[in-house]
Design a protein that fits this description.
It is a single chain. By secondary structure, the protein is of the alpha+beta class. Helices cover 52% and strands 15% of the residues. Strands 1, 2, 3, 4, 5 and 6 form a six-stranded antiparallel β-sheet that branches. The relative contact order is 0.12.
Length: 273
């Protein structure tokens, strides 16, 4: 008895359908898994159930799971396009979940690569405001990248930090206001409270405010110190700010954004004076 080509196609159909169903389900499972792992890892780290770096590791593993979901889903859609709308929709749903997460992480990676690997941002590179109550991280200028880069040849860690800071954040500079120092101090303190930062100290006599800002789902802690003192001219106030991440090498520009916004708010508050 001979088996024709049409019989082979018919016999192969159940097998093809079987694989398309399982691959589409696997795509959806991986898509859900990557989002779930990212959320659980981030929330757990933010709540202190495990270390921040463990939370970051979960985000990284979730990214690779998302990539796998996209690849399997793409194969399923292209290979079994005629298997049935429901099967394809299941695969597309998994790809949508994975693609959303992978795309978000991809933008963060791209952003990190466009910024220097520093986490200490200040308006005064030569004499940054010093912390007195909050403790500056012990490894603050350790592991500073660029020691093998020809651009930074002969520079120590602090000099490399200053060079990278100046190149990326040259616009962040000391703010000079034509306003009484006590008024500027009070306004700065009010802005910090409005932002929901935790104030560690607000010493008007020394002109120093120290506070901690909590950011992102992982609840990273960044410490900020403001130095607000009288200028050389009468009625002039000099404001310097420093914002430092407690962990990590790169801050994805968060500290610079914080400093810029606070400087802008202070400048607007006294622009009419």
């Amino acid at each position: 008895m001979q088996i024709g080509h049409g019989d082979l196609i018919m016999n192969d159909t159940p097998k093809r359908l079987h694989w398309s169903i399982w691959l589409s389900r696997l795509t959806l499972l991986l898509g859900v898994a990557c989002v779930a792992m990212a959320l659980i890892g981030a929330i757990g780290a933010g709540e202190g159930w495990w270390a921040k770096m463990d939370g970051m590791a979960a985000l990284r593993y979730a990214f690779f799971i998302g990539i796998a979901a996209l690849l399997i889903g793409l194969y399923t859609v292209l290979r079994y396009l005629k298997a049935g709308k429901r099967i394809i929709l299941v695969a597309l749903l998994g790809m949508l979940l994975a693609g959303g997460y992978v795309g978000y992480i991809g933008t963060q990676i791209s952003k990190a690569r466009s910024l220097p690997m520093i986490h200490d941002i200040t308006t005064d590179l030569e004499n940054p405001p010093a912390f007195a109550v909050l403790e500056l991280r012990k490894d603050n200028l350790q592991n500073m990248p660029g020691h093998k880069d020809p651009e930074f040849r002969g520079m120590d860690a602090r000099e490399r930090w200053m060079k990278m800071h100046q190149n990326a954040y040259g616009d962040i500079q000391t703010l000079t206001l034509q306003a009484p120092t006590d008024e500027v101090f009070a306004k700065a303190e009010a802005l910090i409270k409005q932002g929901g930062w935790e104030i560690a100290t607000a010493d008007a006599a020394e002109g120093r405010i120290e506070a901690t800002d909590t950011v992102a789902l992982l609840k990273f802690k960044d410490d900020v110190v403001l130095r607000i003192v009288s200028g050389e001219k009468e009625g002039e106030t000099i404001v310097d700010i420093r914002s430092v991440s407690r962990i990590g090498l790169s801050d994805l520009g968060v500290n610079a954004k914080r400093v810029r916004e606070l400087l802008a708010d202070l400048k607007v508050s006294f622009s009419a004076n």
